UniProtKB/TrEMBL annotation:
Organism of derivation: Macrostomum lignano
SUPFAM superfamilies, A to Z: NAD(P)-binding Rossmann-fold domains (SSF51735)
Name this polypeptide is given: 3-beta hydroxysteroid dehydrogenase/isomerase domain-containing protein
PANTHER family: BIFUNCTIONAL POLYMYXIN RESISTANCE PROTEIN ARNA, SHORT CHAIN DEHYDROGENASE_REDUCTASE FAMILY 42E, MEMBER 2
Entry GO MF terms: oxidoreductase activity, acting on the CH-OH group of donors, NAD or NADP as acceptor
Record family assignment: Belongs to the 3-beta-HSD family.
Residues spanning the membrane: 301-320
Sorted UniProt keywords: Membrane, Oxidoreductase, Transmembrane, Transmembrane helix
Domain 3-beta hydroxysteroid dehydrogenase/isomerase: 20-305
Any one GO biological process: steroid biosynthetic process
Parts forming coiled coils: none
Length: 384
């Protein structure tokens, strides 16, 4: 599926790179590592995570010329990062913590997402790593209004405008925005060098929309669990006409590969760095409930034909949250969603990601049909 032929000319004249992936054992990280192994530019992949790679994980489908190393380290401790960052050509920082639900650990989330990102930047500088790719989120621009065709500039315009100051994801979007500032501030900062060989640290940001596919433990599984709790029945919440954009994990990984290739190209790196890039693919727009219908069906959950108006959903869940919080000193009620998460899940949201296609030469490598087939096989086999 992934071809490295477009990079053969470069690899013939440039040394093959060592690439480090933080969060290498995670949802996106595992997919990214396998795609990097198919790139002729890459000689060594370092997977860094606090969790080990899954048993039996291997770089299948490659010619065996790419080495894979695993490093156990926590991004919140810079001292653990520095030894792994030495002699690395590009760091792809995917490690993150998303705390959803009624009882989020916001302190831990900020430690990982904000402090952890600053530690990655500092380790890059200390170890003279010239390239850094940061995985962020499209959710930075979300508020209570629909998002229709937003570009990167539209998302950035919400900062400080009052339009996006209500973080509907328990502070997750705020933590990513603050981390983005640090990454952009670090762009073109000096990392030293020998004599005339000094070069800057070039950074860029990847902002995927909501991701689905193999390795997902939050998005689709949450819908399935909710349906099972309601006796295998799930009403359609909000308007069935809502248009919501999702992206397959394999295409998000490929977007990172495209970004890496551009940063490794001396003629391009400073032209494309210091910027954020949205990532979408050709997955059809649909309401979240219509999108998850086949995955629900695979677990015996039926999506009902009735649609509950969003305002009723929001008010009902708000009252449910008040009750849950009132009794939380005695018992914690594990709500599947918060009212804000439900609101986002039911509200139109799609983006214009033309910038990454034109600037980083990204194009989806997995079709909607292939993405769906792979995802259905994965979700159907999950034990929930």
């Amino acid at each position: 599926m992934i071809s490295a032929s477009s990079s053969n000319r470069r690899s013939a004249v440039q040394p093959r790179a060592t690439v480090l992936v933080t969060g290498g054992s995670g949802f996106l990280g595992k997919k990214l590592i396998k795609q990097l192994a198919s790139c002729s530019e890459v000689a060594v992949i370092i997977a860094l995570d606090i969790r080990p790679l899954p048993a039996g994980f291997c770089l299948d489908g490659t010619d065996g010329s790419t080495a894979l190393r695993f490093v156990s380290a926590d991004v919140t401790d810079k001292a653990q990062l520095v030894p792994a960052f030495r002699n690395v050509d590009c760091v792809i920082h995917t490690a993150a913590l998303i705390e959803l639900g009624l009882y989020p650990d916001v302190v831990r989330m900020n430690d990982v997402n904000i402090l952890g990102t600053q530690n990655v930047i500092d380790a890059c500088r200390e170890c003279r790593v010239p390239n850094l790719i940061f995985t962020s989120t499209s959710e930075l621009g979300r508020c209570y209004k629909p998002v229709e065709g937003f570009t990167e500039a539209d998302i950035d315009a919400t900062e400080g405008s009052g339009k996006g100051e209500v973080d509907l994801l328990n502070g997750y979007a705020t933590s990513k925005r603050l981390a983005e500032r640090s990454v952009l501030d670090a762009n073109c900062s000096s990392i030293g060098g020998d004599n005339n060989n000094s070069r800057p640290l070039c950074t860029l940001i990847i902002r995927p929309v909501g991701i689905y596919g193999e390795g997902d433990l939050k998005f689709i599984p949450t819908f399935i669990r909710a349906g099972k709790r309601f006796f295998g029945l799930m009403p359609h919440l909000g308007s069935p006409d809502a248009q919501i954009q999702r992206v397959y994990v394999g295409n998000v990984a490929w977007a990172h590969v495209c970004a890496m290739r551009c940063l490794l190209d001396p003629s391009m790196r400073q032209q494309i760095s210091g910027q954020a890039y949205l990532v979408t693919d050709d997955t059809p727009l649909n309401s979240n409930f219509q999108f998850v219908r086949p995955f629900l069906r695979a677990h015996g959950v039926r999506l009902l034909g009735v649609s509950v108006p969003l305002v009723l959903v929001f008010v009902f869940w708000w009252l449910l949250e008040l009750l849950a919080m009132a009794i939380s000193p005695i018992v914690r009620v594990p709500l599947a969603f918060t009212k804000n998460e439900l609101y986002l899940a039911c509200t139109t949201c799609y983006y214009d990601a033309g910038k990454i296609r034109s600037r980083l030469k990204y194009a989806p490598v997995y079709s909607p049909e292939d993405s769906f087939a792979r995802s259905l096989a994965y979700y159907s086999a999950m034990e929930i």
